[in-house]
Write a structure and sequence with these properties.
single chain; Porin; globular
């Protein structure tokens, strides 16, 4: 993390030649009367690029309550550094922390290292893949279970397609094999559609599906999250 901090300081000192981009999204659902339901979803993705270097900071928070009882709460925050070797190949190092108490996850810390390869790209579409190694330290919500450490792999595939100037689609799939406990693998994917409203604002509808082959006792293997969000993007 000290190395990343030094690199970030260098980026800031040379900001004249750098490119900064931020993308923030939010969705709120409030229902009253016979049904009292409130849900909130916030996410932010920020990147800072200087020549071959890219530093990205991301985070998200979901909260929901029904009849004034909390039923959903999860969050994540991540920091990642990418270095481009060629126009189609880069290497990366990242740190991420996440929590999802209602899925049985009290806290998980992930350290990632790997490479990203652009398989196909044009003005209308791009396809990329990421291959890497992940080291995870996690503690679930069962107080009698000790903190666990895992060695994992990570295979990620992403495709983006522009259908029209104001309409695009995206699909990503992530597979996380567990080398320490083979039955405890995970699969995540998310298709989404984005409608551009202005040069800054867009609307995004997305369906996130998560599968855990070996969940915490008493929890299910599947989780899904459907969102309709307003996105603000600045450069």
């Amino acid at each position: 993390m000290n190395i990343i901090g030094i690199v970030f300081a260098i980026f800031v000192s040379t900001s004249v030649q750098a490119q900064f981009q931020t993308e923030d999204s939010a969705s709120v659902n409030l229902t009253g009367g016979n049904t009292d339901l409130k849900t909130y979803n916030f996410a932010s993705q920020n990147s800072y690029q200087y020549h071959q270097n890219l530093l990205a900071l991301s985070g998200g928070y979901n909260y929901g309550e029904s009849e004034k009882v909390r039923i959903v709460e999860n969050w994540n925050v991540g920091l990642r550094y990418d270095f481009s070797l060629t126009s189609d190949l880069s290497v990366f190092f990242g740190e991420m922390a996440e929590s999802d108490r209602y899925s049985g996850l009290k806290r998980r810390y992930n350290t990632d290292i790997g490479m990203k390869v652009a398989l196909s790209k044009s003005e209308a579409h791009h396809v990329l893949t990421e291959l890497g190694y992940r080291y995870s330290v996690e503690k679930n919500t069962v107080s009698t279970v000790a903190k666990k450490k895992y060695s994992k792999g990570r295979v990620y595939l992403e495709g983006h397609k522009s259908f029209k100037s104001d309409l695009s689609g995206k699909l990503w799939i992530e597979y996380l094999p567990n080398f320490s406990e083979s039955k405890d693998y995970q699969i995540n994917f998310e298709p989404s559609i984005i409608v551009t409203l202005t040069s800054i604002f867009s609307m995004k509808t997305a369906y996130l599906w998560k599968y855990d082959n070996f969940p915490v006792p008493g929890k299910g293997m599947h989780d899904y999250h459907y969102t309709l969000s307003l996105i603000a993007k600045f450069k």
